[in-house]
Specification:
mainly alpha; transmembrane helix; transmembrane; ABC-2 type transport system permease protein
Length: 502
């Protein structure tokens, strides 16, 4: 009787969920149709924000729920089907699912809204079609990824990571909306933010009927093409790959090792995550960063700088020191470094795995601090500049630290000792390496800092600062990982001697 009771309860739950979804769709359609008498800015902001939220939901929901995919491509292995035909058939069948049908109803109402507002019907209908196809393909791709890779590894750690990821998205948006001053009309900052959102894969399709330029059309088409290619690749892989049977019990006891990929880099990342979240030596380094960022504001306020400008200082300082933190990460391993050397872990796996904890923590912290700082500043037009500056400081610092930790490890506190105990040093090499990483991070970021300064007078430098900062940071990180990997492989034996001596 227990299975029957569970089945009845599940049926009731699904029925209630369908009713709630139906009511939400009706309310959403009614709200969209009411916008035909609203201003153009109001209609554009509401439709782009709503469409972007719906698209994001189709991406996040499969990762959070972890439900089994009833149209799993792996179930068709024995039928000898071609990848392209099966991918197209499964994608088309996804149109009959309840979430996509609900989204389609909203897309139809959106098309009707813009047609009634005088927009040419090809633009209105095209936006609805592209938005629906984007949501459909996103649902298929991320449901397949969740089924293939996440379901066997679902654990408390993974759930925590996904929840934190959602918070990273929600908190900045909430801070932004709370900081706006409506005064009876749509704030200019919100309109500018929606224009930026209209150039992203989430909002590009929904912004086509609005005056957003040809860039939104290009982004929307490229997004659909990339999702279609990803879906075909996943179906192709599913038909030609047989995964080992999942372990039904005991997987939760593996902790972070059950979350990270089963690769050398994944193993290093899992071990590093365990250290960064439990070892007092690592936690002490993290705890100092907020203090440094707060103290840096004091002298600036004393000399009379306005608070609205001083409040922008903590985010770049945090980005700089987050990138600097792993500069001596290898020395904290002590004699455990021999595990990497004895097992033949490649240098790139070691380098990438070690920066994962700092990258995760840094991204989460900066995703909250940047919007809070900009919200207190009051001018959201400077947000892209802050993103570019923090990206180049953070990513560039991680790349340079990947070189320094392999090239010049210095003595650190031994495992189990107080994190505030100072180790004995026989030279200045370690201190010099620390200073070089900080100075080099600032030098790498100098162009972005200059563009950010110019953007205060000329807004055309805002996008240059953001994309230039991201590009410089990514390139520096890639070069740093490559050079650090080569140094690690060349100095393996010497690194073990230094770690034992430390």
């Amino acid at each position: 009787m227990a299975p029957l009771r569970r089945g009845a309860g599940a049926a009731v739950g699904r029925t209630l969920a369908l009713l709630v979804l139906a009511v939400a769709v009706v309310i959403g359609c009614w709200g969209l149709l009411q916008l035909q008498t609203a201003g153009a800015a109001t209609a554009g902001v509401v439709t782009v924000l709503s469409g972007s939220a719906i698209t994001l939901g189709f991406v996040v929901a499969p990762l959070l729920t972890g439900t089994t995919d009833p149209l799993d491509p792996r179930a068709f292995r024995g039928f000898g089907l071609r990848s392209g035909r099966l991918a197209a058939t499964l994608a088309a069948s996804g149109m009959l699912t309840v979430p996509v049908l609900a989204e389609t109803a909203l897309a139809v109402c959106l098309a009707v809204l813009w047609i009634r507002r005088g927009v040419a019907w090809p633009a209105a209908v095209g936006a609805a079609v592209l938005g629906t196809v984007t949501c459909l393909l996103a649902a298929r791709v991320f449901r397949a990824l969740a089924t293939m890779f996440l379901a066997p590894r679902r654990s408390r750690e993974l759930t925590g990571v996904l929840v934190v990821g959602v918070l990273v998205l929600v908190v900045p948006v909430a801070v932004f909306l709370v900081s706006l001053r409506w005064n009876g009309h749509v704030p200019h900052a919100l309109v500018e933010a929606v224009h930026i959102l209209a150039r992203t894969p989430f909002g590009a399709a929904w912004a086509l009927p609005w005056r957003t330029g040809a860039l939104s059309l290009v982004v929307a088409l490229v997004t659909v093409a990339l999702l279609a290619a990803a879906w075909w690749g996943l179906v192709h892989r599913a038909l030609r790959t047989v995964e080992p049977p999942a372990v039904a019990r005991g997987i939760g006891g593996l902790g972070w090792f059950a979350v990270t990929p089963s690769t050398p880099g994944g193993a290093v990342a899992a071990r590093s995550l365990l250290y960064w979240l439990t070892d007092l030596r690592y936690l002490a380094n993290l705890a100092v960063l907020p203090i440094i960022a707060a103290v840096a504001m004091v002298p600036l306020l004393i000399i009379g700088l306005p608070f609205t400008w001083v409040v922008l200082v903590p985010a770049p300082i945090l980005a700089l020191f987050f990138g600097w933190l792993p500069h001596n990460d290898l020395a904290y391993d002590s004699t455990a470094i021999w595990v990497h050397l004895a097992s033949g872990v490649r240098g790139i796996s070691d380098r990438v795995g070690r920066i994962v904890p700092v990258a995760v923590i840094g991204v989460v912290v900066l995703a909250v601090v940047i919007p809070v700082s900009v919200g207190l500043h009051g001018d959201w037009a400077i947000a892209p500049v802050m993103v570019g500056v923090c990206a180049t400081l953070f990513l560039g610092g991680l790349g340079l630290s990947s070189i320094a930790s392999a090239a010049a490890p210095s003595p650190v506190t031994r495992p189990g000792d107080s994190p505030f105990r100072q180790p004995e040093r026989t030279g200045s090499g370690g201190v010099l390496a620390q200073g070089i990483v900080l100075l080099a991070s600032l030098l790498v970021s100098a162009p972005v800092l200059w563009w950010g300064w110019l953007s205060l007078d000329e807004r055309r430098y805002v996008d240059v600062a953001m994309w230039g900062g991201i590009a410089i940071g990514v390139v520096t990180l890639a070069l740093g990982l490559g050079i650090g990997a080569a140094v690690f492989e060349r100095r393996g034996t010497r690194l073990l001697e230094l770690a034992e001596a430390a």
